[in-house]
Amino acid sequence: MHPAEPPVAAPAPSSRSIALLLTGAAIAAGVLVYSGVTGRARSFQETKDWTEAQATPTVSVVQAKRGPQAEILSLPGSINALSTASLYARASGYVTAWHADIGARVRRGEVLAEISAPDLDQQLVEARATVVQLEAAVQQAQANADMSEATNRRTSRLVAQGWSSEERGDTDRFTAASRLAALAVAKANRAAQQAVVGRLEELTRFKEIRAPFDGVVTARTVNLGDLLTAGGTSNRPLFRVSDIRRIRVYVNVPQAFLAAMKPGLKATLRVPGQDRTVSTEVVATANSVSEESRKGLVELQAENPSGDLWPGAFTEVQFQIPSNPDTLRIPTTALMFNRNGTFVAEVQASHKVELKPVNLGRNLGNEVEIRSGVALTSRLIDNPQEFIRTGDVVRVANEDNAQHTASAN
């Protein structure tokens, strides 16, 4: 057996190794310190940039565009007949016959219904008999007047010759004048009664209800045996006759377009359920605007020889309004209103805002015409906030993405 060997001692580290170790530790510590400082600085800068970005409002912009060469304005309208007559009874009695139903084409003067009016007939007979009586009274008064006049002439000669008294002459003269006045009264009574007969004869003509003009029967409410009262208009008319060879169309036009509604302006009609369109034109305006709706009534007329367009029907009217293509239009949401007037907020190339006054034209609903104050290249803030002022800095939404895409291409 060999004796155990003594353990070997580890060599002591050299001073150079220690120095290298200390230097590495110092460098590591410096790197850690630098990383911490720069990280905190970068985080502070990012926070600052984010805060500034949040303080700058982001806006959407719109631009003006030119108006069309011609503008089509579509509005609802109502069709009416050129002439419409509601016929009521002018003679009291019972309906004995009617000769025209709805849809019937009738001529002027054609009998539509007949009325039996026995009371009216009896009144006419009595009135004519009274005229005969008054005619006899006139003849009697004429005879009395003639006799008194002859007597007065004879008495006047006798008084002049001294064969009769002046009292007798005055009596005969006044008697002649009185009977002449009685003759005038008798003639006046006869004329008055003749007028009554004429009125009753005129009323008897209303026992026949006639068409007032050429047209079509659009309503009939009369039936056999109906009792009618003369002069009543509170109930439904017996007949309604309409001339539909030519129609009227009434349209309520917004105030912004009334200036273009001149007589002769062309338009087209389209009735639901019909495939064709009808040409028409403006003939008159009401020259008045409703305070409730701010619309004015416009009348158009069109030929309707086939009778396909019915009174009371709804129609869509398309006006062909001439337009100025140089007039610019912007969305109404780009406008700002205050006590100084109407403005738009334009974004300059430097991203600063400038409030510009504008002169408005027609209000077209979602858009408005601009007569001055805006150019085609102007970038206008859509829905600008009330607090925005000239000189404010804004960011345009999607502008950075658009620029990045353009540079990439």
List keywords for this structure.
single chain, 409 residues, alpha+beta, Elongation Factor Tu (Ef-tu), domain 3, conserved putative lor/sdh protein from methanococcus maripaludis s2 fold, six-stranded antiparallel beta barrel, 23 strands, disordered C terminus, transmembrane helix, coiled coil, RND_pump_MFP, transmembrane, Efflux RND transporter periplasmic adaptor subunit
Total count of helical runs of at least 4 residues? 4
Q: Strand arrangement, largest sheet? A: 4-11-14-13-12-15
- In terms of DSSP E residues, the strand content is 25-35%
The major beta sheet can be summarized as: 6 strands, antiparallel, barrel
Structural overview:
With 409 residues, the chain is of the alpha+beta class. Among the domains are: 118-205; 244-322, Beta Barrel (Elongation Factor Tu (Ef-tu), domain 3); 327-408, conserved putative lor/sdh protein from methanococcus maripaludis s2 fold (Beta Barrel), CATH 2.40.420. The chain contains four helices and 23 strands. Strand 12 (266-270) and strand 13 form a beta hairpin. It is elongated and about 195 Å long. 18% of the residues are buried.
Write the layout of secondary structure elements.
Blueprint (H helix, E strand, L loop, with lengths): L14 H41 L2 E2 L1 E2 L2 E2 L3 E18 L5 E6 L6 E2 L4 E6 L1 H44 L4 H40 L2 E3 L4 E6 L6 E2 L10 E16 L11 E5 L6 E13 L5 E9 L10 E9 L5 E4 L3 E4 L2 E7 L5 E5 L1 E5 L3 E6 L7 E2 L13 E2 L2 H10 L1
Parallel strand pairs: 1-23
Antiparallel strand pairs: 2-22, 3-16, 4-11, 4-15, 5-7, 5-10, 6-9, 7-8, 9-11, 11-14, 12-13, 12-15, 13-14, 16-21, 17-18, 18-19, 20-21
